[in-house]
Amino acid sequence: MKQLKKALVFLLCALCALLPCALGASAADGGKTVSVLCYNVAGLPSIDDLLGKPDAQHLTTNQTLLGRQLNESAYDVIAVQEDFNYHRYLADGLTSYPNKTHHTGGVPGGDGLNVFARVPVYNETRTAWEQLYGVIDDGADEMTPKGVLYTVLDFGDGILVDLYDIHADAYGDAGSCAARRDNFRQLAEMIQKRGADRPVIVTGDFNASIHQGNDDGLYELLYAGCGLKDAWVELHNDGNYENFDYWEETVGGGWPDYWGVWDSLEKFLYRDGGGIHVEANTFAYTDFLDDQGRSISDHKAAEATFTFTKTDAFAESDEALSVTPAPKTRDFILKKLFVILVDLIKALMHFDEAKAYLGIK
């Protein structure tokens, strides 16, 4: 009898020990985990490459190699910036990504923003920034129609996610900071206008870091203003958006210290929506190298994984979704010619600045 009691007690304890594991597995199975990459691929034409200098990186070769590397990495979604003049070489290697946004062309005229996905991509919409700064110097942002690429990603089982891929105004001068603040204001208004019927991921090249202060309104407008969380801050700084002492003391807070290392320019912001809870599981900066071991881009890439879990408040979205058709050739050419004309006028208006920049007396 005692042996039977002992056996029953042992069996009961074993069941109690297994129960939390079983519940945990059930909860995990109820969510959907996806991997996302954000990468400024540096697809601008290189003068050194065009002149055939022996130490130059060959961009056609590099973008071809990058496409193959990304294809083998098996991310669910890839959001890129500066995908300009070598898009074909990059895209041809991404054979496992059947769903792509439409390329807007190289410079001048293209915005450099694209999304490659293994899942359906709907409602592709591009919005140019209302304010940019710099024609010849200070990032020359006014010469390229930077902005926001918005899409809806369908991860299946009713999980639809609003994705914003951005490239904000560059440089740290007063004019660029003011323009970048206006970029974030414009983005925040877009997110708020869409409402909270779907979860949100915002990624891209922000050209801003939260630890540097609030001159460009990153925290005020996006984190606090839109209720967005930052995957790096949440996972690597204990969710603290104000104190970065550990990183500044152990790594350094100057530009060459944090660039591609901690709280860098590439980000993943996220929030719940539509009764779907979003959890950031991992975040890391990563690099892709050419055949000589050199970085393909002057930026590091950011990679993250997220889990989307339905809650009791989940409701199916009733918004119409559609695959955006490619622009008509005539419209594409007319837009390109218009941008070229505007850029030419801007360059002529800043002729003295251009001469100084090129070192011409």
- Whole-Å distance between the termini? 104 Å
Helix/strand-derived category reads alpha+beta
Order of helices and strands: HEHHEHEEEEEHEHEHHHEEEHH
Tell me the number of structural domains: 1
Poorly predicted runs are 1-29
Number of helices: 11
Write the layout of secondary structure elements.
Blueprint (H helix, E strand, L loop, with lengths): L1 H28 L1 E10 L6 H4 L8 H15 L3 E5 L5 H7 L5 E2 L13 E4 L3 E8 L18 E8 L5 E8 L6 H21 L5 E6 L12 H9 L2 E2 H6 L8 H6 L4 H4 L7 E6 L4 E11 L14 E10 L18 H21 L1 H8 L3
Helix pairs in contact: 3-4, 5-6
Write a compact overview of the structure shown:
By secondary structure, this protein is an alpha+beta fold. The protein has eleven helices and twelve strands. The chain has helices spanning 2-29, 47-50, 59-73, 87-93, 174-194, 218-226, 231-236, 245-250, 255-258, 329-349, 351-358; strands spanning 31-40, 77-81, 99-100, 114-117, 121-128, 147-154, 160-167, 200-205, 229-230, 266-271, 276-286, 301-310.
Notes on the protein architecture:
The chain has 361 residues and is of the alpha+beta class. It has one domain: Deoxyribonuclease I, Chain A. Helices cover 36% and strands 22% of the residues. It contains eleven helices and twelve strands.
Task: Describe this protein with a few key phrases.
12 strands, 36% helix, 11 helices, globular, 6-stranded mixed beta sheet, single chain, Deoxyribonuclease I, Chain A, 22% strand, 361 residues, disordered N terminus, alpha+beta
